[in-house]
Amino acid sequence: MNVLVRQASSADLEAAARVLAAAFDDYPWTRWAIPEDGYLGRLERLQHLYLSHALENGVVLVDDEVRAVAAFLPPDVPAMSQERQKRVAELHGSRLSALAAVVLPEPPRRSWSLATLGVHPARQGAGLGSALITAGLALADRDAAPGGVALETSDERNVRLYRRSGFTVTAETPIADGPTVYSMSRPPGTA
User: Fold this and answer.
1) Which domains does the chain have, with CATH numbers?
2) Could you give the percent of the chain with pLDDT greater than 90?
């Protein structure tokens, strides 16, 4: 299948946030980190906030129909604005203290981050996610960041997907009463 991948614009944010909310509906991390009360609405608003930050400071990729979304952040990306951080905290609500207590390993120094990747459930398995990963990794490789690309996932199925793209698991962090987080990285220029 030939997938047309392009950089997202601000006009794509609403649709992209909806796609990510649908893709992450049953995701172990979001189910643990976001209160059940209004879960889907909170998830979509969180995705919109994170995508807005990524669009301003990194690269957001979508397929032409906006059924798949990936956000890549470069090394030394600035922190989210205080206003966005406040809104993120409000959306995490009662789960914020548990979320703040999580300590994950640091990614490789000067690495890009594959911050999110999601495909609408109706289109999963069609190669859209792989196409976005490939395009994003090519951008990161052109940047020649010495740390390569790092990511975190809490779904073992994703570990297999990312391994096919050259990532290896660098740490497994079990979260108390929550999922295991797999930290993964891919050295620069790995074909």
Assistant:
1) 5-186 (3.40.630.30)
2) 90
